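So, could you explain the following?
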Amino acid sequence: MLVKKSTTTDKYETACFVQEAPINSGLERKGLTIKTSCEGLPYCVFRSPLWSFGHYNRMHRRYDKENARSVIQNDERIQNLKKRNAWRAEWNHPNPEIKGQQYSDIRMTIPEPMRTSHFINDDEFVGDLYKATITTHPRTECGRAVASEIIDLGGQPAFSVRLMGTMLPNAPLNAPNMRVSKVITFDMVDFPSHQEAEADIEPVHQEGTVIFLKELAKYCCEQDENMAVVCESFEISPNEIMTISQDASIICEQADTSKIIIPLKSDIRREALSILRGI
């Protein structure tokens, strides 16, 4: 924590708190927990469906839930990884960048540790869904990127199973047409083949509110003399003002991604709080 006071006059005495980790815009999302690592880095924890059964997915594949359950429960590797909190997955399935190039069997069946975006825990079959708790990796480049998409941009994570199996071309209508032999992991993807495989996080449909909060924060900084002194002292430009929190604190982001939280004072705080209560 850093506290800085103006020496110009007691009238402008105030405090700022510097947080060297991204925080959200102040709009809470049900189902999402944001935690901080030992290094002060943010990561996300949430529940999500990963796989669905009982109907055809977008790829016109239909899986047998009991087949999937048996494969997962009897896979020594998966059970060991779960026990050690080490069942990892990647941001997108591994795909060669050059046409015709093929990855080795090991690369396809063992997720790359340094490309880990998230971990899978507390899995269970619930009705026609396979669900689990997802924890984003706080340290890898992929983990930090997906956490930022979720926290800062309101992203809605989705997932796709990486497996080995056999297509059953002569399967009767409305019967499973896939036979799974091995489940590897569940990668995070942009467009899942299973429509239900999206995180149990409240979607963000508040783009207008986000813009309004940013403009309200700028207005408060322009109208308050205390804020003018603070912005000058910390060399905060208008573009670095992100939003205003529900307790009437201005949140700014600097070039190094550190955050400055500045509590409003006196009349401007009362005015901001009255506006925030009406949102």
Observations:
- The radius of gyration is 24 Å.
- Residues 207-223 form the longest helix (17 residues).
